[in-house]
Amino acid sequence: MFSLSKLSDLARDQSSAGRKSFVSSLTDLFFSAGDDRDEQISLLFGDIVLKVLGQLEEETRIVLSKRMCHEKGPRELMVKLANDTFKVAEPVLKNSPALTSEDLQSIAATASMDHLGAIAGRKTVDKTVTAVLVERGNAKVLSKVAENQGAEFADSSFIKLVEKAKSDESIQAALVNRPDLPDEAAKLLLPFLTEQLKERISVLGADSTLVQLLAERAATEVAARAHRLDETREESNALIKDVVSKKTSIDDAVSAFARADRTVELGILLAKVSELPPAAVSQLLLSANDKPLVILCKANDVTPVAYKDILTMRARRLRLGGHELNASIQRYSALSSEGARRSLEALKQAGSGLASKGKTGRKAPSAADAK
């Protein structure tokens, strides 16, 4: 049993040690009542402690906060402790069931980031409180509240959180794991996720909004690439057709295809104007022996300027050095257009497929032979 006379003596002791002993004994008395204590007793306890709280050292207030944080203690006292220094406030902010949403909103609106972080870690945090945390919180607070599956967010708070996550991977990582992420926020989040986070999304359940969006986006990208390929193919075919019909110069088409590294289209172009099999001509473009290519381009009046674009493409693909390029340019300059056309006709008649040996076994004419 607590001695009321002793408690009375402690109440009269104005020293720091006396105040500490008084509050400790009073708290013991509060807890000893257990479930039998009524609201009036709780309020009385709170009133008394509040009167001496300002006289207590921080260490004593920390002890009081830790003892009271899990109890449905006097609300006014809990609010006072929650607004104290962070060391005092932390246990109450994290755990006290006495603090209402309004209390937490008010504290979060003005308190330090440490205080906000403690609120962000509560077992449950309602939408009105998370709205303040998202508005004021730094990256650490935002990551913590986003990781808290007991925290609820309004759609508008999710949108704002995603906006702030653009430059912070830790917030992005926390958002990825939220099953309640709305569609609009998920769509905003997806474009700036790292590949690592996208891989993490892929192992989430099929009902995850992000999983579904990622799959839809992949399908859209595949369709877009296919569409671009179709458009490119159509443009290439139209350009080749214009060259064959003399509506466009061969130089323009050769340079366009060579600079874009489109060997297939370039091969088809040269095959069409030369009336040769496209597969055989395409092989020529990246063959180590450039003499048949020299004949083909010269016979179709490809200028040295456009031919250099082909050489640049070959150099990239075959890793040719300056010596090889200069030798090829010299061979091209040395061959006359008339000689190239005679050699091309001989190649066609030989039916050699532009190989060094024809089907008949005869040696194919070279650029030197045509000179």
Q: What value does the average pLDDT take?
A: 82
Strand content: under 5%
Q: C-alpha Rg, in Å?
A: 41 Å
The quaternary structure here is single chain
Helical percentage: over 70%
Number of strands: 0
Sheet/helix structural class? mainly alpha
How is the main sheet built? Answer: none
Number of DSSP helices? 23
Q: What are the low-pLDDT stretches, counting only 5+ consecutive residues below 50?
A: 355-371
End-to-end C-alpha gap = 122 Å
Global morphology:
rod-shaped
Listing every helix as H and every strand as E from the N terminus to the C terminus, the arrangement reads HHHHHHHHHHHHHHHHHHHHHHH
InterPro entries: DUF2336
Organism: Roseibium aggregatum
Protein name: DUF2336 domain-containing protein
Pfam families: DUF2336
Kindly summarize this structure in a few lines.
By secondary structure, this protein is mainly α. The protein is built from 23 helices and no strands. Among the domains are: 1-99; 249-370, no CATH class.
What does this structure look like?
- The chain is mostly helical and about 375 residues long.
- About 70% of the residues lie in helices and about 0% in strands.
- Among the domains are: about 1-100; about 250-370, no CATH class.
- The protein contains 23 helices and no strands.
- The protein is rod-shaped and about 115 Å long.
